[in-house]
C-alpha cells in the first residue's frame, strides 16, 4: 500500500505507540506530523507542540499542519486506584486527556479534512470494551472514546471518511512500565512477576508490541479498509 500524497497527524506521537504509528505512516509514504506537550525527535515526521486538552492549542495544531487526510488521536494517560479513593481532580485530569482530547482532535481534524477520503482513528484500549478493577476512570474514558468513534462514524460515512478505534491490551511501552512499577510498589512482586501478571490475560502469553498496534492502524488507512467503519478493533491475542 502507499499513502503518498496523504498528510497524517499523530497526537501523543513522541514515544511508544504514537512514534511507532508515525514511523509506519511515514514508511508508507505519508507526510507525517506528530504532536505532544514536549518536543521529541521522531524520524520521518515533523513536530508541532500541542496540548490536546486545550481547545485553542488544538486549533493552532491544525493551523500548523494544514488539512490532514489521516488523524490519529493517540494522546492518553493512565492511572490506577481503588474507586473509593479516586479524587475528582484525578478523574477530571484523566478525562481531559483521554476523552476530551479525542473529541477536540477528531472535531477539528474533521472540520479541515479534504473531501472524498479521510481516516479518523482513536487509539483506545481493551478497557474501552469491558471493565477492570482499580482503573474505573480509565475504563470510563476509553468506553467514551469507543462510543464517540461509533457515533462519528455514522456521520462521516457518506463523505468517504471512516472513524475507527483500535483497542489493544497491555502494550510493551513506557506507559506499561509505569504500571509495572505501580504493581511492584503496591504488591511486592518483582518486575518480572508484574510483567507476567499483565501478560497472563493474553492467550499468546506476552505483551502486545507498539509495532503491532501501528500495523493495525496502518491497515485502517488502506483502501482495502474503506468499508471498515465504526469499529472497535480488539488487539488482545484472543483475550475476552
List keywords for this structure.
alpha/beta
Task: Walk across the major sheet and give the strand order.
Answer: 3-2-1-4-5-6-7
Integer average pLDDT: 93
Radius of gyration (Å) = 17 Å
Share of β-strand residues = 15-25%
Unreliable stretches? none
The main pleated sheet reads as: 7 strands, parallel
| Number of beta-strand segments | 7
Please give a structural write-up.
The protein has 240 residues and is of the alpha/beta class. It has seven helices and seven strands; from the N terminus they run E-H-E-E-H-E-H-E-H-E-H-H-H-E. Strand 5, helix 4 (136-156) and strand 6 (161-168) form a beta-alpha-beta unit. Helix 1 crosses helix 7 and helix 2 (55-65) packs parallel to helix 3 (88-111). The chain is globular, with a radius of gyration of 17 Å. The relative contact order is 0.15.
Task: Give the gist of this structure.
The chain has 240 residues and is α/β, with parallel strands linked by helices. Helix content is 42%, strand content 16%.
Q: What's the structural blueprint in terms of helices and strands?
A:
Elements: E1 7-11, H1 16-27, E2 31-36, E3 45-49, H2 55-65, E4 70-73, H3 88-111, E5 118-123, H4 136-156, E6 161-168, H5 174-187, H6 191-199, H7 210-220, E7 232-235
Parallel strand pairs: 1-2, 1-4, 2-3, 4-5, 5-6, 6-7
Helix pairs in contact: 1-7, 2-3, 3-4, 5-6
Amino acid at each position: 500500500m502507499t499513502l503518498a500524497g496523504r498528510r497524517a497527524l499523530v497526537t501523543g506521537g513522541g514515544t511508544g505507540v504514537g512514534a511507532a504509528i508515525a514511523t509506519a505512516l511515514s514508511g508508507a509514504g505519508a507526510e507525517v506530523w506528530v504532536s505532544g506537550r514536549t518536543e521529541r525527535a521522531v524520524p520521518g515526521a515533523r513536530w508541532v507542540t500541542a496540548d490536546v486538552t486545550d481547545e485553542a492549542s488544538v486549533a493552532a495544531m491544525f493551523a500548523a499542519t494544514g488539512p490532514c487526510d489521516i488523524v490519529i488521536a493517540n494522546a492518553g494517560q493512565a492511572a490506577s486506584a481503588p474507586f473509593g479513593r479516586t479524587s475528582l481532580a484525578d478523574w477530571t485530569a484523566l478525562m481531559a486527556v483521554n476523552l476530551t482530547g479525542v473529541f477536540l482532535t477528531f472535531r477539528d481534524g474533521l472540520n479541515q479534512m479534504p473531501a472524498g477520503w479521510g481516516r479518523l482513528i482513536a487509539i483506545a484500549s481493551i478497557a474501552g470494551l469491558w471493565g477492570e478493577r482499580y482503573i474505573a476512570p480509565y475504563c470510563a474514558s476509553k468506553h467514551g472514546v469507543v462510543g464517540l468513534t461509533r457515533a462519528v462514524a455514522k456521520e462521516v460515512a457518506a463523505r468517504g471518511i471512516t472513524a475507527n478505534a483500535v483497542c489493544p491490551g497491555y502494550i510493551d511501552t513506557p506507559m506499561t512500565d509505569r504500571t509495572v512499577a505501580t504493581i511492584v510498589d503496591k504488591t511486592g512482586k518483582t518486575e518480572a512477576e508484574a510483567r507476567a501478571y499483565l501478560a497472563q490475560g493474553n492467550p499468546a502469553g506476552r505483551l502486545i508490541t507498539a509495532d503491532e498496534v501501528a500495523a493495525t492502524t496502518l491497515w485502517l488507512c488502506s483502501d482495502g479498509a474503506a468499508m471498515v467503519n465504526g469499529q472497535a478493533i480488539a488487539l488482545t491475542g484472543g483475550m475476552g
